[in-house]
Amino acid sequence: RNMSSAGPEGRKKMRDCDGLIDSLVYYIQGAIADHKPNDKATENCVCILHNLSYQLEIELPESYAQSIYMQRRNISSNDRTPGCFGTRSRKVKEKQQDTPLPEEKSNPRGVEWLWHSTLIRIYLSLIAKSTRNYTQEASLGALQNLTAGTGPMPFAVAQTVVQKANGLPSIRTMLHISHPTVKKTAVSLLRNLSRNTSLQNDIAREVLPDLVSILPESVPGSDIACETTASVCYTLYNLTQSSSHNARLLLNADGLPKIITISMNDSNMFSKASKAASVLLCSLWSHTDLHNAYKR
Q1: Where along the chain is composition biased (Basic and acidic residues) (predicted)?
Q2: For residue 157, which of 146, 168, 144, 142 has the smallest C-alpha distance?
Q3: Residue 48 within a domain
Q4: Residues 200-211 pLDDT 10s
Q5: pLDDT given for residue 90 in this prediction
Q6: Which band of pLDDT confidence, cut at 50, 70 and 90, is reported for residue 278?
Q7: 211: which residues sit within 8 A by CB, 6+ positions away?
Q8: Contact status, residue 136 vs residue 127, Cβ threshold 8 Å
Q9: Are 153 and 60 a contacting pair, CB within 8 Å?
Q10: Fewest CB atoms less than 10 Å from the CB: which of 98, 133, 145, 161?
């Protein structure tokens, strides 16, 4: 666990170690099957996998990544840009929703486990069943890492979490946990997921009222609470920017007074949260059909 946080070279060596990742996954699967999601070894295993998933899309060798994530469409040779998971054009990136997702292997080995749907479901199971804060945080953090990029792998993981594995209820529960870093990581994961336009309505329907409910009534009193508040505002921004319906959901959840209060603080310590709230307010005002409701 300590070595897995030693930096990029350490991560690469551990990812390349024959059987290591397979063994970690095997152990966690056994712990879940034996109804022991809270043992220390399971926590250690998940924390290692969390660390090994950090910057995965960037650090995988290009040749290896291309063999897994070859795009199933012809890309014009004069508009190609190298991507960590295969060559893809700017047009493909802009129309990510139209790009067929890669097929995953039925029997993953080694590093292939790190983004496989089976491991994604394991993380979601641990989030739901474990009461150890470090295990919860590491599971959420691994999913946060895997959804952080812009290529087909993060997009596929996000779709698995939201639509295929029905992970939002478990993540939503973590928003209301008292442990501040678990809550912060859950919000950061939702922020990543909310960047996918095809998932925004599902996310808004499932967790938007909860996101509003965890916004503080006044300016947060600590750095970690300030970062969490900023992430909530940016997540709400993603969910409401292109949807008047979702903006009305925020309004009906009494989010506007909280956002105004947070935006009005000009203290340097809380500038990150107040800036995020101001960006959200500006975006909400762009829905002209809601102006009368805002004024009321």
Answers
A1: 94-107
A2: 146
A3: yes
A4: 999 999 999 999
A5: 40
A6: very high
A7: 175, 187, 190, 232, 235, 236
A8: yes
A9: no
A10: 98
Q: What are the tokens at 112?
A: 């292939």
* Residue 146 within any structural domain of the chain: yes
Q: Tell me the average pLDDT across 172-184.
A: 96
**Beta partners for 89?**
80
| 182 within 8 A of 174, measured Cβ to Cβ | yes
Written as six digits, the tokens of 281 are 């307010």
β-pair partners for 88: 81
Residue 71 reports pLDDT greater than 70 = no
**13 lies in some domain:** yes
Judged by DSSP in three states, 149 sits in coil
Which residue from 224, 223, 236, 234 is spatially nearest to 267, judged by alpha carbons? 223
Mean pLDDT of the chain: 86
pTM of this structure: 0.87
Side-chain-facing half-sphere of 243: CA atoms under 13 Å: 23
Contact 87, 66 (CB under 8 A): yes
Average pLDDT over residues 17-32: 97
Residue pair 163/203 in contact by the 8 Å Cβ criterion: no
**pLDDT greater than 60 at residue 280:** yes
Q: Which of 65, 97, 108, 262 has the alpha carbon at shortest distance from 120?
A: 108
Share above pLDDT 90 across residues of the chain, in percent, rounded to a whole number: 73
Q: 95, 228, 66, 84: which is closest to 154 by C-alpha?
A: 84
Give how many domains the chain has, as a whole number: 1
Other Cβ atoms less than 10 A from the Cβ of 83: the count is 22
Would 77 be classed as within a structural domain?
A: no
Helix (H/G/I), strand (E/B), else coil: 81? strand
